[in-house]
Amino acid sequence: MRKFAAILFLALSFGAKAQVQITPQDKERASALVKQMTLEEKCRFIAGARSFYTYAIPRLGIPEIRMADGPQGVRNNTVSTLYPCGILTASTWNRDLAHRLGNSLADDCRARGVSILLGPGVNIYRAPMCGRNFEYFGEDPYLAGETAAQYILGVQEKGVMATVKHFAANNQERARHTMSSDVDERTLQEIYFPAFRKAVQEGGVGAVMDSYNLVNSVHSTENAWMNKVVLRDQWGFEGIVMSDWTSVYSTIGAVNGGLDLECPKGVFFTPEKIVPLIENGVLEESLIDEKVQHILQTFIAFGFLDKPQKDESIPENNPQSAATALDIAREGVVLLKNENALPFTKKSKILVVGNNGIKMPHGGGSGEVTPFYTISVADGLKALHKKVTVIEDKSLLEQEMASCTDVVYCCGFNRDLEGEAFDRPFSLTPKQLELMERIQQNLTAKQHLTVIINAGGAVDMSGWRDHADAILMAWYPGQEGGTALAEILTGRISPSGKLPISIEEKAEDNPSFATYFDAGSKQSRTSYSEGIFTGYRGYDKTGVKPLYPFGFGLSYSTFKYSNLAVEVLPDGNVKVSFDVTNTGKKDAAEIGQVYVRDVKSSVPRPLKELKGYDKHFVGKGKTVRYSAVLDRYAFSFYDTASHSFKLEGGEFEILAGPSSADLPLKATIQL
Ligand code: BGC
């Protein structure tokens, strides 16, 4: 172990890459327009005119602005590229790919005249059951924040506004309109807010969407502490706070609570409801002006008042977008288990079983996209391999199994089983488990079983994991998913995705298990009783071992980590670097992770927290220098007395390695 001493002046450094800035000129122009608007026009302007369009005021040159979901492709009355889902993007741990995803989504928007994309979704993965986990970026705020910031920069640098959602603590779908997420301030600031903060401060996001749920008994759209104190005063946000589609529950509460734009249309934000309240002195007109100002200054900064959004030169079915979807899928699939089963050889006779192998599934709800085409696992394998049999009629299973060397069982969820507005079980369906058992019963000693899972998070593997020779977590890999999976199965590429979540052995091992949903409570509340100890922070605390730890993922190659160095940069940030050597027989990409441990603290802190990562393609026998830069947040905790992040001096350990459970490199640093 190496020791480093340093006196640190850690300045707040926010990445200033290609952010869209609201300039003083934009603000002046907006304010001049606000002055020319009638009160009725202002009240109309702060709500959608119809679903997915804002209100136009042609006499002032303000056009209607089109919005569309998000986050994994452009939705709403269009056919478009279906990208891999959010959790797969996070599994790539590849900032460049997240950025490229943003670029491609923006192209898809420009091709259709869409100005505002309703993504990314950055709610933290708390438990496997949440129906929308697939849209989000996993359990760790640092990884989620890095992925979100790059996605947003990529979208916005092409003239499309991104919307980070759902602010905040929308970590389950069940009872989402009535449920209060009861979370203490420190936990919000350390776990559930950071991805939003990065979206604002590093991504320069144009819009924030308030969630359906209540936070500590207050609806998000009425939560002045969140929308004004945190978002605007603490983080400096100057863009638009919009509601989710019908997440406004009152006029006075939402006007005072900091909401700027009611969506999809005016129910509480209408002249009929607002004007009398102003006339009777209940509401100040200046509050309405402020909302109009926020919306207009952001539209002006993005150029929405000055140029048509539709770019006829971009094709709707864009080969570049398809290539982005394929590259993300290639890097986000995670190999969880491999006992001499993969990759297949030329001699392998492959039998594809299961509905998910025939039709590429995706999660359900507003994140659904109607693609031009999808490539299933069966399609992908048939294109790359000679001996592939696919069975759609389960009765032939025993017969077909007798002629194959490898069974690929594609199971998991789809839009009907996992999606928006409902939660899903931890287990696979009884029918899928039954089929799994039939396959296992017929498997001979010479045959191998590879299980491919489609899900937005962990599934219960306890009953069948030991019988599978290989397990791939494919999440929802998008329209090109079958090609990516076939390339991995046949060894054309090595898998390089790593888990952005911990996978528990049993449901009750999850740190949030006891309070994921308080079914007995009349008010439907969820107490986040595990506090900051969610995901691997919780497993580290209790000592319970997850089945597959956060950051884990196998490769077809092997890697050695060495030569850790820690250096304080002139701006006060800390640079961590180390060597990664590909010691195996295959060229492959590898993700190196950096965690920080506060050795002694005045408050309870996680044993370690992810604060940096790097990913490179490393040729066999080659060594690549990895690096990560740690800013002040890497060492700080949220201090509830001063309501700010605090860095307590002392000893910190810097740990580096291939996963949260395997960190061979260690150094200490004195701050
Ligand atoms: C979802 C949002 C989505 C909106 C518009 C809502 O139901 O929660 O994420 O952007 O619908 O489709």
Derived structural class? alpha/beta
Question: What is bound: which ligands?
Answer: beta-D-glucopyranose
Binned strand content: 15-25%
> What is the CATH topology descriptor of the domain at 325-514?
Rossmann fold
Intertermini distance = 17 Å
CATH superfamily of the domain at 325-514: Glycoside hydrolase family 3 C-terminal domain
Would you count the extended β strands for me?
Answer: 28
**Number of alpha- plus pi-helical segments:** 18
CATH architecture of the domain at 325-514: 3-Layer(aba) Sandwich
* CATH first level of the domain at 325-514: Alpha Beta
Structural summary, described in words:
The protein has 671 residues and is of the alpha/beta class. Among the domains are: 325-514, Rossmann fold; 557-670, Immunoglobulins (Immunoglobulin-like, Sandwich), CATH 2.60.40. Helices cover 27% and strands 21% of the residues. Helix 3 packs across helix 12. The chain is globular and about 80 Å long. Beta-D-glucopyranose binds at residues 69-70, 118, 165, 244-245, 366.
